[in-house]
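User:
I would dearly like some help making sense of a protein record. Take your time, and here it is.
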Amino acid sequence: MRLHDDRPADLWTDALPLGNGRLGAMCFGGVRRDRFQVNDDTCWSGSPATASGRPLLAPGEGPEVVRAAREALAEGDVRRAEQLVQRLQHGHTQAYQPLVDLVVEQPGRAEDEVPPGYRRWLDLGEAVAGHRFGEAGERTEQEAFVSAPAGVLVVHRTSEVPVDLLVRVTSPHPVQLAPGDVDLWAGTVRMPSHVYPPHEDAAEPVVYDDAAGASITVAVVMRVVTDGALRIRDDGLTVHGAREMTVLLTSVSDYAGAMRSPHGDVGKLLRRARGTVAAAAEQPVERLRADHVADHTALFDRVALDLGGNPGHDALTTDSRVARHAVMGGDPALSALLFQYGRYLMIAGSRPGTMPLTLQGIWNEDVRPAWSSAYTTNINLEMAYWPAGPANLAECAEPLLGWLPGVAASGAATARELYGARGWTAHHNSDAWAFTLPAGEGDGDPSWTAWPLGGAWLAQHVWDHYEFTGDVGALGRAWPLLHGAARFCLDWLVEQPDGSLGTSPATSPENHFVADDGAPAAVSTSTTSDLALVRWLLECTLASLDALEDCVEHVDPDTDQPVDVAAWRAEVDTALRRLPGERALPDGRLAEWSQDLVDAEPEHRHTSHLIGVFPGGWVHPDTTPELAKAAAATLDARGPRSTGWALAWRLALRARLHDGAGAEELVHALLAPAGDGAGVYRNLFSAHPPFQVDGNLGFTAGVVELLVQGHRVVGGVREVHLLPALPPGWRDGSVRGLRVRGGITVDVVWADGELVEATLTADAEPDARDDDELFDADAHGDDLDDVTPVVVRCGPLRTALGLRPGEPAVVTTATMGDLLAAL
């Protein structure tokens, strides 16, 4: 399974991505000058000090400002409320940074030469990029990969004739050379101490500070192993008369977590980097490659998707194939390629022990990237991790889960000082330093900055991880995150005039309504998305207590006392009973605001008020048909065009609404050449535009939802819904290795749009649930302790199964009974 091209990359979004979770590289495949743009996932501007932001308020003033904003909203003065919440803004997050460029030059070749036989590719199954060129007898071939086992970028180049090469390292940041050797270049790179986002007009947008602890320092070491002659120079090494060359590059930074200042011990960093490169150099490149491929395939090969199609399309370059598909369609295998590309990007960009994926994953060439390439928590960071469980990459979610405790610690101070609340909160942007404050310079649009429910959404991933893995130990250790986020939500809720509980001030992320003065406004009370997130989190917190059997060893940091589980349950239950649910508008759409307001932007990209459909699941065609119909009407009204990630979200929404035809239209829109709007670039990066990795990963999650869903528990039994929204153009196919909640792996084969066979395998201890009347205990013997009951559904057909750990259970249409009436 490959991406391939017939010319080198011209633009960054033409280049091919490699990564091991920590090191990322964009491979351009040049002839005279080949570029590898390299990132290290710990390379950010700033330091722990920058997480405090730049407050506009006096200490302790925040709760009073919030109280005044609530009063203004109660009096109908939305403009006064917006001015007040802008006073809560604290500057901006820091920016994810590029590290270095590794450049391999072959002097003497023409600058823009594309020789005969040129080919460039990325093998998704092996995570190896390469290119070759030249005629017989003069061919050059180069492969590159970023090895997780060895911790290095490896570039291996062979030529049928001896060549002279120049291998250089450059950086957009200050570089301090370190002592090298005849085959080794070493240096340290200093990150900026502060970077303003590009949408802010700053007199000094990039600031460097040599003071200790003010920013991150990174050691970079590059070694060349070759049969040619080597000579060192300030920016790299020259190679003379080489037929074979291997370049090894690594980096080590002094980032030590969100709360610890960078130590700046250059000697220590260089020793570690040199040691990593030396260990890699002791191994033959064939061994490095084999170990790398084995490590990658252990994750990648868990899932296989075959959607059929014309084998002749594989001969087209990837960009030609996308262009053809946009005009003619009829290439379902391209959808399978994009699905697996999302899984590839998650494996390459998010491994245990690394940082979470930024807006651009671990790939970024700009010192001031769009939106700082930070963590946008009002959808994009969450979306980036949607496929982790269902696409069988649960361990790739560890960077997000491991980052959350630092965010919770920072967010507890924000909750206390800004809102006078317990627990922890986060707003719409964060970074490596766990920035949790409202972003903006005092004039930022409240539609994006006045949203304190980032913690509520992020904490859902704790429960999500448990549902897919059954890891009770991990759930117990992370329960304080759920409890703290829920504690903030309980304090954030305020009584409304009708006696219900709601949020004030409230926004629907980045959207606006038309206020009484005829202009757009963002701040109101009790938006649908606010209430959905609060309800979802509170319910998940209770469900986690059930899974833990109320055994939580957690001292509430707000009281310094153990959590009283019974009292906590009672408080949460009381709040849940007072939370309003979703409602339909008179025009048939799902309401986004608590009042019937006019949308300022009817085709807005965010669909936050549909959280109950996806990634939630309580708005469903079976159980809430009128609300599901309203959700579909909302999607229709939003129109066929939007950003890449927004279309990916809508793909999952259509899937949950069982709309395969609507989903197919979205697949077609996503798989088009990127221009002024959504689509994909030459390297299949998803276009907002610009590139955002969540568009790719959201697509992967959406495809899973089209093929299998397992988010519902009906009558105490997990429902596994097969082919719930199969696109009409995917008539024949198979998928292996998808996951549903409850620790179940699912394989499905279909033909002519109908189920042929499905195999379900439970790999975790069964959930403690009440037996459903559909589950026939006699069919499985008397020992039910290790049996997981499920109901398998495909169209109107349903059947009950008892799954034993590790024992595949096969379902066909012939073995399924029509039990719709019984359900």
Summary: The chain has 17 helices and 35 strands. The CA atoms of residues 507 and 594 lie 11 Å apart. The radius of gyration is 27 Å.
